[in-house]
Amino acid sequence: MAVTSRDVARLAGVSQPTVSRALRDDPRVSEATKRSVREAADLLGYVPSDAGRALSSGRTHRIGLLVTDLENQFYAQIIAPVHLELERMGYQLMLHTETADNETVAERLIANGLDGVILATTTVDSIAPLRLRDRGLPFVYFNRTASFVDADATVVAPAAGFGQAAARAVSLGHRHIGAVLGPSNTSTAQSREIALRAALAQHGLALDPQNVRRGPFDTHSGDEATTSLLAQDSPPTLIFCGNDVVAYGALNAARRAGVSVPEDVSIIGFDDLPAASWPIIELSTIAYDFAEMAREAARLVTHRIEQADAPIAHIEFETAFIERRTLAAAAARV
């Protein structure tokens, strides 16, 4: 026969509601009582029921992580930090993977009985945040934000990293610079383009439109765009990429075209994913603490659930340029 909270209550000498409150770490219960209840629960092998807790508290203690950009390797890196941080706070992570960010997605999230949602791949024109707000489901933005609804967010501040990268590139003689930028309907692509252009302008440089390409944050986009850039009569000596995954595609394109990196063309990424530092890649890139950014998103969503009227928080993570093998002095023009 399964052990119940009433069995724990009898052994601990408290009421059944006190057992529930003690195991939820309710501040109204004394530390001595909490300790007594936990000892009784451990002795009896009692495991609280998620369903029971949901009925008593009105919460499921489940947080959704919505990822619609399924091929972007960046998002695979944040699942573990979010999961561990939520687990530490007594919540479960529920991963939701969709191929689009729309009204139907919002309705499915709402129907799944979640306490809150982390939106990881939102586009600036997404209507999902509107639906979540209107239905009263707490959410936070991670990395990308939407235009229609202000909400808690953890985002990257790219200016410092691009400033350092541009200064180093100019010191190495780069003046003919190209860029493979991300999709224009994402806040990340927009903010990175603004920061890159501003950093170059500090040195009297600008991106020539013929040296700019845009596309999804994936290797195919980087490969295709770089192939096009390198085929020009006067290709850039340095290519800034929207993220590391795009930069991996750029490296593939250079290898296929017989163009040496960094002797003929230098390549700079963004994110500093684990593979960027591998000896086979050694990608120069713009780094920030994306794992801590993921953990902060987990903290923000639980705070919003527990304090619905708290002021909206926008937390920015600073960037820094990491120089590795793929950046060198500009190739001399013949």
Largest sheet: 6 strands, parallel
Rounded mean pLDDT score? 91
Which consecutive residue ranges, at least 5 long each, have pLDDT under 50? Answer: none
Strand order of the largest sheet: 2-1-3-4-5-11
Distance between the termini: 85 Å
CATH homologous superfamily grouping of the largest domain: Response regulator
Shape: elongated
Number of strands: 12
CATH topology of the largest domain: Rossmann fold
Order of helices and strands: HHHHEHEHEHEEHEHEHEHEEHEE
**Which secondary-structure class do the elements indicate?**
alpha/beta
Provide the CATH architecture of the largest domain.
Answer: 3-Layer(aba) Sandwich
CATH class of the largest domain: Alpha Beta
Number of discrete domains? 3
- Rg over CA atoms, rounded to whole Å, is 25 Å
* Percent range of helical residues: 40-55%
**Beta-strand content estimate:** 15-25%
The DSSP helix count reads 12
Can you tell me about this structure?
There is one protein chain. The protein is α/β, with parallel strands linked by helices. The chain folds into three domains: 5-57, 434 Repressor (Amino-terminal Domain); 62-155 and 289-316, Rossmann fold (3-Layer(aba) Sandwich); 157-288, 3-Layer(aba) Sandwich (Rossmann fold), CATH 3.40.50. It has twelve helices and twelve strands. A six-stranded parallel β-sheet has the order 2-1-3-4-5-11, with helices on both faces. β6, α9 and β7 (212-214) form a beta-alpha-beta unit. The longest helix is centred in the last third of the chain and has 17 residues, at 290-306.
